[in-house]
Amino acid sequence: MSGTLSGGCACGAIRYESSAAPIFTGTCHCRDCQRASGGASSSVLALPEAALRLTGEVKYHTVKADSGKTLSRGFCGNCGSPVTNRGEAMPGLVMIAAGSLDDPKSFKPAIDIWTSSALPWDNMNPALPKFPKNPPQS
Questions:
Q1: Do residues 67 and 134 touch, judged by C-beta distance below 8 A?
Q2: Would you identify the CATH topology of the domain 5-117?
């Protein structure tokens, strides 16, 4: 992914833009992401918070994630689309829901995390590195 990233919610009430390259991209298979996405996982890209321009009113639902740290899931109060995540475990970063990108085909996940919670019917890419929980922080 290169160039400007942009996206927003389904109804257009929330929009974002960033020219920063993602710090990482990945798919999380934790139980909380399964519930939040309504599927087997949640695919995100992490951006530096300072590089993200966000317009519109984001509503947040804060939970204690499987890691034990708090996670605030940002969504549109009008259409319910998931847009952002902000986590205590990664200060200074904002996770963007890959499905909210204007060009979601450009998203290329690099890792799978929380694979210990992956559902048996989830078809993960065997070529990607897998971590049973969070990857080691460098």
A1: yes
A2: 2.170.150
Amino acid at 45: L
Domain boundaries, the chain: 5-117
The answer to whether 105 and 43 have CB atoms below 8 angstroms apart is no
pLDDT in tens, 66-81: 788 999 999 999 999 9
To the question of pTM greater than 0.85 for the whole model, the response is: yes
Q: In what order do the strands lie in the sheet with 58-64?
A: 58-64, 70-76, 82-87, 93-97, 42-48, 24-28, 111-113
**What are 32's two structure tokens?**
């909380």
Q: Using CA atoms, how far apart are residues 39 and 32, in angstroms rounded to an integer?
A: 11
What lies within 8 Å, CB to CB, of 40 at 6+ separation is 29, 34, 118, 119, 121, 122
Start-to-end C-alpha separation, the chain: 21
